[in-house]
């Protein structure tokens, strides 16, 4: 596929599957939460960053360490991922980040938020673009849980995501999980109001992109309709 360059600012986003995305900028590529599916061909001559938000098997697959072979790759891992799972040959290229920490390397700045599940969410700045990947930071309201549990979750979610209030974000990756039934969009709707995100890519929908259509059907008058990206298949490419 030809690359599109818009006024020198370029961003290509590939939906790989579940919470896995590849983001390509002019000099940088970033892979987020890969666990299965096809990783796009790595662009040559660019800096690479591979992120894993936590150790759950739907967010972290040790297969990612093979990408070290292409050179110039840094692994940015949540500190809950056991060090013994990291092969010796990539240890020097890996950093382990706790919640609420900063990391900078050539061409990139990363800030982590605490998750309401395990690990972290990533706020990344590179080449003048700001990208947010939530990992499992979401309002995990479950009907089976007690009122107190859900209330506590709601409070934690609001406080952990508060650093994003008013934040200008170019691309945000946000859970929209059909398992939560009628509460599926609590977290995403809160995020849409909180942050100033240009495009929001729903994720973590377990192979059921129809949940995005449901959101559209249930948000007929929402001013956010043009910001929520309709993902329909794995491998789909978006440009912005
Ligand atoms: Zn998950």
Which ligands are bound?
A: zinc ion
Fraction of residues in β-strands: 25-35%
C-alpha Rg (nearest Å)? 17 Å
- Low-confidence segments, ≥5 residues, pLDDT <50? 1-6
Largest sheet: 7 strands, mixed
DSSP helical segment count: 3
Major sheet: order of its strands?
A: 6-5-4-3-2-1-13
Query: End-to-end span in angstroms?
Result: 15 Å
Helix content estimate: 10-25%
Elements, N to C (H/E): EEEEEEEEEEHEHEHE
For the secondary structure, the number of strands is 13
What best-fitting shape do the alpha-carbon axes yield?
globular
Structural overview:
The structure is a single chain. With 240 residues, the protein is an alpha/beta fold. 14% of the residues lie in helices and 31% in strands. It has three helices and 13 strands, in the order ββββββββββαβαβαβ. It has helices at 147-161, 186-194, 210-218, and strands at residues 12-17, 20-24, 28-32, 47-52, 73-78, 94-97, 102-105, 108-114, 120-126, 129-133, 168-175, 196-203, 237-239. It has a seven-stranded mixed β-sheet, with no helix packed on it. Strands 7-8-9-10-11-12 form a six-stranded mixed β-sheet, with helices on one face. Zinc ion (ZN) binds next to loops.
List keywords for this structure.
240 residues; 31% strand; disordered N terminus; 3 helices; 6-stranded mixed sheet; 7-stranded mixed sheet; binds zinc ion; alpha/beta
What is the fold's blueprint, element by element?
Elements: E1 12-17, E2 20-24, E3 28-32, E4 47-52, E5 73-78, E6 94-97, E7 102-105, E8 108-114, E9 120-126, E10 129-133, H1 147-161, E11 168-175, H2 186-194, E12 196-203, H3 210-218, E13 237-239
Parallel strand pairs: 3-4, 4-5, 5-6, 10-11, 11-12
Antiparallel strand pairs: 1-2, 1-13, 2-3, 7-8, 8-9, 9-10
The structure holds zinc ion (ZN).
Residues 56, 58-59, 136, 204 line the site of zinc ion.
């Amino acid at each position: 596929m030809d690359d599109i360059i818009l006024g020198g600012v370029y961003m290509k986003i590939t939906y790989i599957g579940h919470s896995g995305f590849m983001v390509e900028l002019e000099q940088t590529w970033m892979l987020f939460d890969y666990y299965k599916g096809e990783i796009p061909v790595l662009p040559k001559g660019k800096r690479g960053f591979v992120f894993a938000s936590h150790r759950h098997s739907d967010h972290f697959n040790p297969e990612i360490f093979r990408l070290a072979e292409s050179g110039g790759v840094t692994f940015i891992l949540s500190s809950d991922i056991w060090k013994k799972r990291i092969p010796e040959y990539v240890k020097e290229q890996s950093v382990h980040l706790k919640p609420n920490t900063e990391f900078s390397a050539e061409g990139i700045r990363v800030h982590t938020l605490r998750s309401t599940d395990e690990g972290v969410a990533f706020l990344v700045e590179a080449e003048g673009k700001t990208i947010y990947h939530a990992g499992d930071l979401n309002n995990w309201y479950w009907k089976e849980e007690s009122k107190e549990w859900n209330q506590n979750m709601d409070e934690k979610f609001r406080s952990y995501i508060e650093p994003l209030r008013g934040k200008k974000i170019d691309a945000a990756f946000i859970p929209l999980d059909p398992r939560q039934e009628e509460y599926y969009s609590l977290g995403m709707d809160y995020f849409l109001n909180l942050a100033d995100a240009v495009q929001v890519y729903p994720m973590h929908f377990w192979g059921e992109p129809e949940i995005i259509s449901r959101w559209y059907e249930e948000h007929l008058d929402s001013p956010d309709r043009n910001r929520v990206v309709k993902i329909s298949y794995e491998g789909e490419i978006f440009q912005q």
